[in-house]
Structure to design on (462 residues):
């Protein structure tokens, strides 16, 4: 689809701009009051750029839904003509907006505003092209019109909402200059509004996924409000109904020792329900987002991780005669504070079972592929709208610059993106890291000192 290709190109440009800002602002050799003010300005522009990236990603997801919704459907009814007329009107409106931003580009001297206007023009061009395609699709349809309209009626509303906030942020930044100096106002609402909206739409703004050490850290903090809900949640499961506080602490230490697979799936559940918060609350019984004292939203990963761990850990399927049973294996773990982790088969059974108990169908499959095929298979799954859990042994995690950050053990993680240089972006321990499938340990596992190196992936489909 041309619109998606255009958005992907925009994403690459925005990524380059963001990296350039980070590199300049991080120059330790430049020290002055004016440079500190400039860094704050660049930080604000970084918020805008990340919002643009999130809006683009949201549009790409909606284009996929739109393409799948329309597909080969045949529509019927008198209303089809009104929809065709509306598509043409929307196209004209988008083209007019595109022209406005094209004209702004011709006279704009500020490079960042020029980039923004170029981005906006591109978005309206994509929307105009999409309206034309919808017109052509609807013109041929004769059946099931109402169902498709209902499924696609809310598309692009989320991205349009954050674009309104982006424009507000641009205006506020432009108005923050006083006699050539950038005046930072920490009380400006636009930052919180953009960051909260972005958090709802995608993993961003310091949201790097769940951390298996998060629940234990929260318990150790010792606040009654935290401990009360954790205690109540853990006691709600039969296996742990009589746990003392000491046993709960040991239980959370065990989660920290083996919880990477559970966190990987929790990240995927959050990603699935980011734009469906009310549905999430109805299914799981608690909100997806919480708000801190400064008014900023954050994902309640800890509660979801604990719930998933309590419901799933040590559960396995056994067959007696022709019947299948779920059992809790109290002897599975090494000790009360040290667990054995999860195998790919554990994750399939336990996570599918967890979602079934919430009346949600999820299919998890092992993807058999060679080490040099992992990157492409991840890309294929992404294009299909599926999520991926990747597990490696040993762990070879890198930061954005390619420096090693963890180099031992075995680990399961959520794939959160793919880089142009062939690396796989992952969420691990609540941070963003990268894996290079071409690493020698995975390319020649027989030469690894442990003798059992691997890199494996699993597809998760809702």
């Amino acid at each position: 689809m041309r619109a998606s290709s255009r958005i992907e190109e925009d994403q690459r440009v925005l990524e380059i701009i963001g990296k350039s800002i980070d590199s300049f602002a991080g120059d330790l050799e430049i020290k002055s009051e004016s440079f500190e003010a400039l860094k704050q300005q660049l930080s604000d522009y970084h918020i805008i750029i990340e919002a643009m990236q999130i809006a683009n990603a949201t549009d790409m997801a909606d284009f996929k839904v739109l393409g799948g919704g329309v597909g080969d459907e045949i529509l019927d009814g008198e209303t089809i003509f009104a929809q065709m007329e509306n598509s043409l009107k929307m196209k004209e409106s988008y083209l007019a907006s595109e022209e406005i931003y094209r004209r702004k580009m011709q006279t704009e001297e500020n490079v960042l505003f020029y980039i923004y206007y170029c981005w906006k023009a591109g978005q309206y061009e994509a929307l105009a092209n999409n309206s034309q395609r919808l017109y052509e699709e609807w013109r041929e349809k004769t059946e099931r019109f109402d169902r498709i309209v209902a499924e696609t009626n809310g598309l692009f509303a989320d991205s349009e909402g954050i674009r309104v906030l982006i424009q507000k942020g641009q205006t506020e930044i432009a108005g923050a200059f006083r006699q050539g100096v950038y005046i930072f106002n920490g009380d400006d609402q636009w930052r919180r509004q953009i960051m909260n909206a972005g958090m709802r739409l995608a993993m961003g703004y310091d949201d790097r996924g769940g951390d298996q050490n998060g629940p234990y850290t929260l318990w150790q903090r010792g606040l009654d409000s935290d401990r009360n809900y954790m205690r109540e949640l853990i006691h709600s499961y039969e296996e742990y109904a009589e746990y003392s506080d000491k046993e709960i602490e040991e239980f959370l230490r065990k989660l920290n020792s083996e919880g990477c697979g559970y966190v990987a799936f929790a990240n995927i559940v959050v990603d699935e329900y980011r734009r469906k918060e009310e549905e999430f609350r109805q299914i799981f019984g608690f909100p997806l987002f919480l708000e801190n004292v400064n008014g900023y939203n954050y994902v309640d990963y800890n509660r979801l991780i604990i719930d998933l761990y309590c419901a799933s850990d040590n559960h396995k399927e056994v067959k007696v005669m022709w019947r299948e049973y779920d059992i809790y294996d109290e002897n599975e773990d090494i000790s009360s504070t040290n667990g054995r982790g999860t195998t790919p088969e554990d994750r399939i059974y336990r996570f599918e079972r967890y979602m079934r108990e919430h009346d949600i169908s999820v299919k998890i499959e092992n993807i058999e592929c060679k080490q040099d095929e992992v990157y492409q298979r991840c890309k294929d799954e992404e294009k299909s709208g599926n999520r991926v859990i990747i597990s490696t042994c040993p762990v070879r995690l890198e930061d954005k610059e390619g420096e090693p950050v963890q180099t031992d053990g075995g680990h399961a993680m959520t794939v959160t993106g793919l880089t142009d240089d062939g690396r796989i972006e992952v969420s691990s321990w609540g941070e963003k890291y990268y894996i290079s499938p071409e690493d020698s340990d995975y390319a020649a596992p027989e030469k690894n000192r442990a003798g059992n190196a691997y890199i494996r992936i699993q597809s998760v489909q809702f």
The chain has a mean pLDDT of 88. The radius of gyration is 25 Å.
